[in-house]
Structure formats: structure tokens, C-alpha cells
Amino acid sequence: MVLAANAMRVMDKVIGIAPLVYEAGYKFDAIDIYTEGSSNFDKVGGFKLSDENTRCVTIGRPVLHEILLDGCREYEKLIDVRYSAKLMEIKESDEGVTAVLEDKSEIRGESFA
């Protein structure tokens, strides 16, 4: 999968895992596009953010998932990862958001406003 430079900015500034993603993936600033039936290649650039050294990355989805889950494990008191849970309803209020799951359990998130 490809993570655009703006997604990598989030991985860096918000989540703090950009170095791990860069190390596990392949950084690039441009791609070559081949048109079927033609021997011509077109180079497409502009994948690097001009205000930073943030670059696009191509990485295997399972590898990225593992990096993200490892990050969640570091904050297990704040992040509740549940497998095979089906979201049935989202309730919003001034206090935050509540996710209601199929088994009637609820997960609450506080408002940052």
C-alpha cells in the first residue's frame, strides 16, 4: 500500500511512528507510469511535501498493521483494540463520543473541544 506524504506527516507528528514506517517501507518522491501498448514512461513527481522532508512510503499492509498495533500496545490503558467487534451505533454529545457494539458493550471517547 502507499502512504502519501500527508499521511506520513500524521504518522510523524501525531502518532510518532514515522521512523518505524520509513524503516519498514520504501520511500519515494516520484513514480514512473507505463501506458499499456506504449513503450513510453511518464514520470510523476510532487510526492514530497515542500515544507518538510516528509516523503511517500510504500509498505506491506500487514507490516503497517503490526507497527500500528505495537504502537497501540504501548498505550493499552488509552487504546482498546477489539477484534471481531461490530459497530452498531455512534452516539455523540458535548462530553464525547460513544460507540455501541453488537454485544451491547460501549466504548467512550472524551471530547477534545
Please provide a written account of the structure:
The longest helix is centred in the middle third of the chain and has 14 residues, at 61-74. This protein has a three-stranded antiparallel beta sheet. A three-stranded antiparallel beta sheet has the order 6-7-8, with no helix packed on it. With 113 residues, it is of the alpha+beta class. Helix content is 28%, strand content 30%. Strand 3 (31-34) and strand 4 form a beta hairpin.
SSE pattern = EHHEEEEHEEE
Q: Strand order, biggest sheet?
A: 1-5-2
| Radius of gyration using CA atoms only | 19 Å
Quick check: average pLDDT? 84
Query: How many domain regions?
Result: 2
For the secondary structure, the number of strands is: 8
**What distance lies between the first and last C-alpha atoms, to the nearest angstrom?**
33 Å
Helical amount: 25-40%
Structural class: alpha+beta
| Beta-strand proportion | 25-35%
Shape: elongated
Uncertain segments of ≥5 residues (pLDDT<50)?
A: none
Largest sheet: 3 strands, antiparallel
Number of distinct helices: 3
